[in-house]
Amino acid sequence: MSRYNNYSNTKEDPITLHSSRLVSYMNGHPQTLLGYAKYYGDSRTAMHAKMIDIDSSGIVLDVTMEDGQQEEIHVKFKTPLRGYEEVRPVLEEMAKEAETALGLPSTRPPSTTAPSDPSKHTPYVLPSLIPLLVGLSLILFVLCLDLFPEYLPSFIAPLREALGPDLCRAITYFTFTVRSVETIFITNVLRERGEPDPVTFAMWIVSSLLFGYFGSYRLFEEGKDKANKAE
Questions:
Q1: The DUF2470 domain covers which part of the protein (predicted)?
Q2: In a domain, 124, yes or no
């Protein structure tokens, strides 16, 4: 019997979404789990413990005893967790209590290697074909109009002559200024969200530079989806 019982699991649990990642991380710290099993599960003969599930109300451990028998132990948190950010401090406090009571050396997982909050990660999504072509065509058209007129179709040549080289250069400056402002804005959005993956961060930035709004609009769609799921 566990020290805390009445473990339950609900479909709308705030931790369930991250359970696979947390289980994988905690199974990299077997001594911590063994301390949980011995202390909270009252299983002093436990030899090995593996986490198999976690939600806001507690954890489930698969424990192997000295005689080789296996037992599933449910350990309930003293207070249900309200969000992912509470997982690490609660598990570390439980580990500290267990090691103190059992006279064990520190088994707490190093805080520097704890997983970052996945809710802050916004995976890069490639724009659909039409927005991608529109964004890329716009920048190519401006460049050709100003710097590479020889690549322009013949029916565009009169337009360049009518605008004149100074206005064409002004359009180029304006376009790249707008793209730069858009990219700075996207950079700030990613920083405010705390995007943990530098590769993903860079992909959003490059996409904004190349395609402008057409390369970054899905960043905000992803944000809305996360907000709706959180509600």
A1: 19-94
A2: no
pTM for this predicted structure: 0.45
**34 contacts 46 by C-beta, under 8 angstroms:** yes
Expressed as residue numbers, the domain containing 45 is 16-115
The list of the chain residues with pLDDT below 70 reads 1-11, 106-120, 222-231
CATH of the domain at 53: 3.20.180.10
| pLDDT, tens only, 193-208 | 888 888 888 999 988 8
Q: Residue 62, exposed/middle/buried by CB under 10 A (0-12, 13-18, 19+)?
A: middle
pLDDT digits (tens, 9 = 90+) for 96-107: 999 888 887 765
- The verdict on 99 and 135 lying in the same domain is no
Strand ranges, E, within the chain: 46-55, 58-65, 70-76
